[in-house]
Write a structure and sequence with these properties.
Blueprint lengths: L4 H12 L6 H13 L3 H17 L6 H13 L5 H15 L8 H18 L2 H20 L6 H27 L3 H21 L15 H11 L3 H14 L3 H22 L16 H11 L9 H9 L2 E5 L3 H17 L6 E7 L1 H19 L7 H19 L3 H4 L4 H9 L5 H21 L24 H4 L9 E8 L5 E4 L3 E3 L18 E2 L12 H9 L8 E7 L2 E7 L1 H4 L3 H6 L4 E6 L14 H29 L5 E6 L20 H4 L16 H8 L10 H18 L17 H5 L5 H10 L5 H5 L1 H27 L9 H15 L1 H4 L4 H27 L1 H8 L4
Helix pairs in contact: 1-3, 3-4, 4-5, 4-6, 5-6, 6-7, 6-8, 7-8, 8-9, 8-10, 8-12, 9-10, 10-11, 10-12, 11-13, 15-16, 15-17, 15-28, 16-17, 16-20, 19-35, 20-22
Length: 871
């Protein structure tokens, strides 16, 4: 009976601790670990086997070192800066890579360099990959019976065509299509034809039996690459019928999808003389039939969106931090993607802070959809309905002012100030669940729970028993996305991730040659210390969004030995969630950036605190720029296929500033595309002054009224419609937030929105700034208090009695206590500051916080939302 992932991991751990297992169990264990991509455990098992062989004085076969190298370079728990070099070193040390004539060794080396190229986008690594495949191909030509030689031959063809496509994408517009590019393409096709002629008769029978189950895949790829799709289908069916492991089919499918995307690029050059890329033979319909055969799909056809999404590769979306402002902006982005029917293709959701708040809300609705409808029943309208519900429900929830509600419960206030492990951040997490997630969870899943745990997020798609996201997700029309909530570990400065099954620091982009701090290893919840095996969803979202200073770090003690782990807002490390998307090897990326970008500062900084905050903002802005530029460089070097970035300052670039008494004329070239008229519409349809105001809206967790919410949603929606070039619906949906459209596009309709947005940048006293009546009341109250204060001091000044008095006894007692507190032995017993702080100041804060927060929520908060209703 096939074991599940966790049973296999338990068996692996026991074996590594010394438990003996028989040969059959060992084989089942190893193959199961590979199937579930548990390459770390597979590596340790092989190392244990090698150690046992060496103790017996026997010789270790190269096959074991091949498996070891393969597991190391595929291991996602190892840093990319380490694992590729380590895998190559294994081959050099134990398999004589530099002068080997073994095609298996050469094939693995070629694969390592290919993946290393994907990691660091250094073209020389792709050339090294081709060089190893070429050597294997040459050995195959000499002797077709060499083991795995046909594998290196077919990959030599693939590597040549990959280089051709990269050359076409990068250089053809400058140099045209060079003879060298055409020569590489011809080489690629000739190698494939050689493979076909060597192994296949005219009637498609094999001249010789293949050495392993991969052989039919090799022949199928050769036919597919040479545009002989019907013959490819024949061998695809043979391969699929002979293979039980779905991960092997998935690996082969990815290779064919890549070749299909190559052919799509080559089709753009169909006007060249003599058709050097054989574009006339490319048949998209027959390509689709190949993939249907590969997926054992009985349907007659794939929809265009399904086919294109598979060719583009894994799609990931980053939902940035920025409080409720960012969350509302993201809703507009999701609305546009729903119209474009792209939400179904998302496989990774990397969320930070405000992005985590909305990301989890969307994910719970998606979980309900995928668990109540089978894959073929789900339509574009289902995703649109999800976002339509979100735009109303989420907007109502953000009107409740979570920041103030943190202090609205007297019991929780006492607990926060007198319990070390319970802070405002934990309270915030509970409020997230109470106002956002629990109503959804209990409604959709027929529950009556008071807490949601990370494991509750696991999606079990309807009518898909034993679904394995690693092996089965690629076949689905409606993908099961991996939700990643990003936080920052104060202890190490690394990214900390929460998912439905594990938490910890990812290894991929940690280089021990630069970053010598220890990495806090990821763990499955069921393997964590007992107190963390059920980790609350609200706490994970709070860890992702607890802004330093405003909220304490989320403390996770007793998780690692001698470490009090503290987590803060994920935006401190990576506010766009980019690192997690890259770690998951997404080749198509959408970044929705609702974060606070640095504003201009033309006057001197007021004080040291303001300067410190400004410096911090500069560092955050620089980090953002570096990460986005890195993404763009990956797109330019074609390491990612699609890249779309939307943000709140899109189109708001400003002209250079000239010095005083400058006599130079304005350079017209710099003015090109710059919109100086604030009433003119930006490319995506909003007036510049409206977008400028939206970019300055506060990034907070207080109440956002309807005007603010709808304007932010509309901005995200319009930008995504303009920037993301997926097919757009001919009949756009009537979203509720579109009611704000006239205010965003017509100067005559802007007044209410402009007045609101001018206030929206402030955190305190927004309601006073919005209401003339409250402004008059506040001014009158201030005058009365000033008069009373002046009168009090005047009377005291005229009185013979002193304003303040203090006795000698009080001075003596204070002096004695101060002296005693200097000594460490007595400081813990006599500490005036601590005693006052904990027993007087805290009590005042607890009751005042409770009283004032409830007064505000019952009066001013409701008034703010009422004034902010659209008229």
């Amino acid at each position: 009976m096939k074991k599940d992932k966790h049973d296999l991991i338990t068996l692996a751990k026991n074996h590594l601790r010394g438990e003996e297992i028989d040969t059959e169990t060992y084989k089942e264990l190893y193959e199961g670990l590979i199937q579930y991509e548990q390459f770390g455990y597979a590596t340790e098992i092989i190392l244990k086997r090698i150690e046992e062989i060496e103790k017996k004085g026997e010789t270790t076969t190269p096959k074991l070192y091949h498996e070891l190298a393969r597991n190391v370079y595929k291991d996602t728990t190892l840093s990319g800066y380490f694992k590729f070099g380590k895998a190559l070193n294994i081959l050099k040390t134990h398999c004589k890579l530099d002068d080997t004539l073994d095609c298996e060794t050469l094939g693995i080396a070629g694969a390592i360099y290919k993946y290393k190229w994907k990691f660091d986008h250094q073209f020389r690594n792709l050339l090294k990959s081709r060089a190893y495949y070429k050597k294997g191909y040459q050995l195959w030509k000499e002797d077709h019976s060499r083991l795995s030689s046909e594998y290196t031959a077919i990959n030599y063809a693939y590597a040549n065509e990959l280089i051709v496509v990269k050359s076409l994408e990068q250089l053809s517009e400058i140099e045209g299509v060079t003879d060298e590019v055409i020569k590489k393409f011809t080489t690629s096709q000739n190698v494939r034809k050689e493979i076909i002629n060597t192994y296949v008769n005219d009637d498609l029978s094999l001249i010789t039996d293949g050495p392993d189950k991969w052989f039919n895949a090799t022949i199928a790829e050769a036919y597919f690459g040479t545009r002989q799709y019907e013959k490819a289908i024949h061998f695809i069916k043979l391969y699929v019928a002979d293979i039980e492991e779905t991960w092997k089919i998935q690996t082969f499918a990815q290779q064919l999808y890549h070749i299909a995307s190559f052919q799509e690029t080559e089709k753009k050059f169909n006007q060249l003389p003599n058709d050097p890329f054989e574009t006339k033979k490319i048949d998209t319909k027959k390509q689709k039939q190949c993939f249907l055969a590969l997926e054992k799909n009985e349907k007659e056809n794939l929809t265009p969106s399904e086919f294109e999404s598979k060719k583009e590769g894994k799609l990931g979306i980053g939902l940035s931090g920025g409080g409720f402002r960012a969350a509302l902006f993201h809703i507009g982005v999701l609305a546009s993607l729903a119209e474009k029917d792209k939400l179904r293709d998302i496989e990774v959701m990397s969320c930070v802070s405000g992005g985590s708040i909305i990301g989890v809300y969307y994910y719970l609705k998606l979980k309900h959809l995928l668990e109540t409808k089978v894959d073929d029943e789900i339509t574009k309208l289902d995703y649109i309905e999800i976002v339509k519900e979100i735009e109303i429900e989420f907007q109502a929830a953000v009107e409740k002012n979570l920041r103030v509600q943190v202090f609205s419960n007297l019991f929780k206030n006492v607990k926060m100030y007198y319990t070390k492990k319970y802070s405002r951040s934990y309270r915030l997490g509970e409020l997230y669940e109470e106002h956002f997630y629990l109503p959804l969870f209990n409604k959709y899943f027929d529950k009556n729970v008071k807490a949601i745990y990370m494991g509750d997020l696991i999606i079990k798609p309807k009518s898909a028993s034993n679904f394995n996201i690693y092996n089965d997700n690629w076949k689905r029309k409606n993908k099961i996305p991996q939700l990643i909530l990003n936080s920052t570990a104060v202890n190490t400065g690394h990214n900390w991730q929460f998912t439905a099954t594990w938490m910890g620091e990812p290894p991929t982009y940690i280089s021990d040659t630069v970053d010598v701090k220890p990495r806090l290893r990821r763990m499955y919840y069921q393997n964590a210390p007992e107190a963390y095996q059920k980790f609350r969803l609200g706490y994970a979202v709070a860890a992702s969004s607890c802004v330093p200073v405003l909220f304490e770090p989320l403390l996770l003690s007793d998780l690692y030995e001698d470490i009090d782990l503290e987590l803060i807002d994920g935006g401190v490390h990576d506010n766009q969630g980019i690192a997690s998307i890259l770690e998951q090897e997404c080749s198509s990326i959408i970044i929705s950036d609702g974060s606070a970008q640095m504003s201009n500062n033309y006057k001197n900084v007021a004080n040291e605190l303001s300067l410190f905050l400004r410096v911090d903002t500069i560092l955050q802005e620089r980090l953002r720029e570096i990460q986005l530029l890195d993404l763009k460089s990956r797109k330019y070097s074609e390491n990612i296929n699609q890249l779309y970035i939307v943000h709140l300052k899109k189109g708001l670039g400003e002209l250079p500033v000239s010095w005083i008494n400058c006599t130079d004329v304005n350079r017209k070239i710099l003015h090109d595309g710059k919109i100086e008229d604030p009433n003119v519409l930006l490319d995506y349809g909003l007036m510049k002054k409206i977008q400028q105001q939206l970019s300055e809206v506060r990034t907070d967790l207080d109440s956002f009224n309807e005007l603010e919410s709808f304007a932010l949603m509309y901005s995200g929606y319009q930008q995504t419609n303009h920037e993301v070039d997926y097919a757009f619906s001919d009949t756009p949906e009537q979203w509720s937030f579109k009611k704000i459209e006239p205010s965003c596009t017509l100067p005559a309709e802007e007044t209410q929105l402009i007045n609101q947005l001018k206030i929206s940048t402030y955190v305190p006293f927004k309601i006073v700034r919005l209401s003339k009546l409250l402004q008059y009341f506040a001014a009158a109250l201030g005058i009365v208090l000033l008069i009373l204060l002046i009168n009090m001091f005047y009377k005291k000044w005229e009185s013979p009695d002193p304003i303040f008095t203090i006795t000698y006894q009080e001075v003596a007692v204070a002096a004695i206590l101060i002296v005693l507190s200097i000594y460490y032995k007595f400081a813990k017993y006599i500490n005036i500051e601590s005693w006052i702080k904990k027993n007087i100041f805290y009590i005042i804060i607890i009751f005042l916080g409770f009283l004032l927060s409830n007064i505000y929520l019952l009066s001013f908060n409701k008034l703010y939302n009422k004034i902010g209703k659209m008229r």
